[in-house]
TrEMBL record:
Name this polypeptide is given: Histidine--tRNA ligase
Residue span(s) of domain Aminoacyl-transfer RNA synthetases class-II family profile: 1-329
Assembly information from the UniProt record: Homodimer.
Catalytic activity: tRNA(His) + L-histidine + ATP = L-histidyl-tRNA(His) + AMP + diphosphate + H(+)
Alphabetic keyword roster: Aminoacyl-tRNA synthetase, ATP-binding, Cytoplasm, Ligase, Nucleotide-binding, Protein biosynthesis
NCBIfam families with a match to the protein in the record: hisS (TIGR00442)
SUPFAM superfamilies: Class II aaRS ABD-related (SSF52954), Class II aaRS and biotin synthetases (SSF55681)
Subcellular location(s) per record: Cytoplasm
Statement: the UniProt record of this protein carries the keyword Repressor: no
InterPro entries associated with the record: aa-tRNA-synth_II (IPR006195), aa-tRNA-synth_II/BPL/LPL (IPR045864), Anticodon-bd (IPR004154), Anticodon-bd_dom_sf (IPR036621), His-tRNA-ligase (IPR015807), HisRS-like_core (IPR041715), HisRS/HisZ (IPR004516), HisRS_anticodon (IPR033656)
Organism encoding this protein: Phaeospirillum tilakii
Amino acid sequence: MSTLQPVRGTHDLLPEESRAHRRVEATAASVAARYGFGEIITPIFEFTEVFARTLGDTSDVVTKEMYTFTDRSGDSLTLRPEGTAGVARAFISNGLAQSLPLKLFYRGPMFRHERPQKGRLRQFHQVGVELLGVETPLADVEVIALAARLLDALGLGGQVTLELNSLGDAASRAAYREALTAYLSRYRADLSEDSRLRLERNPLRVLDSKDEGDRRIVADAPPIAASLTPEAAGFFADVTGGLDELGIPFVVNPRLVRGLDYYSHTAFEFTTTALGAQGTVLAGGRYDELIAQMGGPRTPGIGWAAGVERLAMLTGAAPAPARPVAVVPMGDPLAALAVAEKLRRAGIVAEMGFSGNLKKRMARAVKLNARYAVILGEDEAARGAVTLRDLDDNSQQEVALAGLVSHLAALLDGERAG
C-alpha cells in the first residue's frame, strides 16, 4: 500500500473544493473586466533578483520563505511568492511604458515556505489587480472600489471591514523613519534578533514583526500620521473623500504600515473576524517607486491581492454542477456512447453507465444525482426509441431516438426557467 502524501503545506483540490476556488477566480475576473482590467499571466518562477530586489533583503519573504533553487544553467530561480513583482517585471521586459495607463488582472498559485495555517498553505492561490501609470488619488479609489465590489459579488460585503492608512510620500517616510528609529532604539535590547537587524536597515519592517515581544513594543510606537507632509495628508484626504462619495465604508488604522520598500501613500486591507487571528482576506497599496527600483522608468502603481483559499472558506460550498443525464446501455454500448455524444454536443451533461446490470447502473445514476436516465435496450433499439426515466419521480416514457436531444433540451430548459 502506498504511503505517498502531498508535501506539507500543499493540498489536493478535489472537484467540490475546486468548484469553490473556480467561483472565486471567475467572479474576480468578471468584476475586474467590468472595471476595464485585462488578464496577464506571468511565469510561476522568475529570476530570484526579481523578488530579492523588490521585496527587500530583510523581509521575512526573502530571508525565510522563498522557494529558491539553482537550475541546470546555474541561474538562481524562485517560485513566485507574490504577484506584483512579476507584473512589474513584465511591464519592463515587454516595453509597456508607451501603453499607460495599464489595468492588469492576475490569478494563480504562489509559493511561500511558511508555517501552514488556516487559509494559508505553502502553495496557495491569489487573485489580484495592478493599475499602472496613474498618480492621482482617483486610481486608489477605483482599485479599492473594485475590491469592495468583488467582496460584494461573493456575498461577503457584510463580513469584512476596510482598514486603510497613509504611508505618505518620501519626505513623510523619511521623517517617520527618524521618529520610529528614535523610539525603537530605546528598546533595542528587548527586540527580537530579526527586528534588531531591521532597525538598522529599514525600521518600518519592525512594524510587520510577528514576534509577540516586538508587537508589545510597537503598540506604543508613534503613528505615521504625525509625520505626513501637507501634500501627503491632502492625498490621503482625497482618497477617503472619494470612498465617502462612492459610499464605501472604512476605518483608519494608524498601525497599518507596509514595511516593503516600494509602498507609498495608501495602504489598505479588508479584514474579517470569521477566520480567527488570520483575518486579512484582501490587501494592497500604492507603490510608485517599484518599477524604477527594478530598473524601469518611474511609473506610479497601485494594486491588491486576495487569497483564494480564504475567500473560498468564507463563501462556502459552490453551487452544485448541472445534474447530468445518465445514459444506460443494455444493448450495444457503442450505440449508447453515440447517444451520449449527441447529448454532449447539444450542451447537455451526459454520463455513461459503463458496466453492471440495470440495477447497478441505475444505482450509479442516482449516486451521480442524475436528473434523467436514458435506457437503451435491444427492444427499444429495434423500434428506433429509448426509455427516458425521470429519476425524481421514477416515471418513464418511450421517446423516439431521433427526437431525444430536442426533447431532453426542452425539459431541462423548462426546469431552469421554472
